[in-house]
Amino acid sequence: MPLAESTEPRAVAAAPAGRAKKFGTAATRAAIPAVTGSLYAARRKIQPQAVRGTFRWIKWVLLAVALGVYYLVPFLRWHRGAGEPSQAVLLDLDRGRFYVFSIELWPQDVTYVMGLLILAALILFLMNAVAGRIWCGYLCPQTVWTDLFLAVERLIEGDRRERLKLDAAPWSVEKIALRGMKHAIWLMIAWWTGGAWVLYFADAPTLVADLATFQAPPAAYTAILILTATTYGLAGHMREQVCTYMCPWPRIQAALTDEHALNILYRDDRGEPRNSAKKSALLRAAGQPAGDCVDCFACVTACPAGIDIRDGLQMDCIQCGLCVDACDAVMMRLGRPTGLIGYDTEANRRSRASGGGPVSRIVRPRTVLYAALVAGVGGFMLYSLLTRSFTALSVLHDRNPQFVILSDGSVRNGFTLRIVNKRPVERRFALSVEGLPESRVEVVGGVPDALPVPSDATQEFRVLVFVPPGAPAASAPLAFRITDPATGETAGAQDYFKAP
Known about the structure:
Elements: H1 26-31, H2 54-72, E1 89-92, E2 97-100, E3 103-105, H3 110-131, H4 134-138, H5 141-157, H6 160-168, H7 173-198, H8 204-212, H9 218-238, H10 240-246, H11 249-256, E4 263-266, H12 268-271, H13 277-285, H14 298-302, H15 322-334, E5 341-344, H16 346-353, H17 365-387, E6 391-397, E7 404-405, E8 411-421, E9 427-434, E10 440-443, E11 451-453, E12 457-467, E13 476-483, E14 490-497
Antiparallel strand pairs: 1-2, 2-3, 4-5, 6-8, 7-8, 8-12, 9-11, 9-13, 10-12, 13-14
Helix pairs in contact: 2-5, 3-17, 5-7, 5-9, 7-9
């Protein structure tokens, strides 16, 4: 969270004795106050006030959806056939597979993971160009779990005023009971958060039973303990400090935004000068200027970062909109128009200050570029997934010897073929060699017309290629091709036939 500003003037340190002449006369030096303590105030605990309104309702809906997806997805079932895992989303480290419903990714499909990361970054850039740190305010895991922990805290200890009284009260049986209950529920949520994470790496119902009977692998318990500690510490205690100090995004997004991006802003042209509600009414009755802001600090007490949005856009602001709901509630009670605080742009703000009309440029080169990149990367990944092959072939030529001359003058080359079968059924492939019309192919321990490869596996075959004397007279390109007669799917690989 932001460091609290001290109300005392900042002290100036006295200069070393040997350099005293550079700071003026003795009387001048005597007027300089001495350093009496730290230049920074101690951190103050933030107790946000509960609010109701449009943005708070949106946050509740997104929180329920996000937590529901995280906690329940491991229990979704997806039938893939006999012998295949039935969990819809599973990262199977033992088999080296990543299952997402009907999609199965192998280790060599890491390019899809890279594509997803690039796509996520571009979407984040687009969101920032349109509405600032809207990701931070609504969808960031830190925000979601902090909101959940705050809801538990309000349910047990009460709203802001009650929590402040409890903080200031001496320790008693009631205070210990309330604090103990709150932290116990926090730890339960944190433990289940860590437990839900490990369920993505094994069959969820089976692992839950193993965890309950203490038969799960030690790695599962270790991961749960680590995630329990981090969730409890980050969402329960550090809260806004994570967003301000630990997260790099507030600093990065400042370089990606511009004057046309929507941000939470205070309309100082309408809110100033500030006065109490009673004094503002008297000033208006007398025909004197009076702002709509009544300096009630409702926006400050509702802010989870503890900032005053009326001081301008700040790095600590996560654009959650709770200050908007708090201010709108006050304006409605006073019979004044809502929107004193709301999503606005710096360009629109400057236009109003100069007497101009509203300025809105959501569609501009920056957003068009990001949207085009998102569509391009997403479209390419989708096309690649829909057209990807479930068969792969690689060839490795023998290195020593590269060729063998037989007694009848023919030349033999040895190759190792590796066939990848990504389908959940056993398949038999027919092998053919292209490029040497007079060649003959033998498969050690098998026949070229039926090379068996188990389901969801790779299989190596030792292949010998023979050519009669004089054909070829030197090294020549060679192409191997396998075909699945059942599906017609093919795969090929290039190499060279070595000859004297």
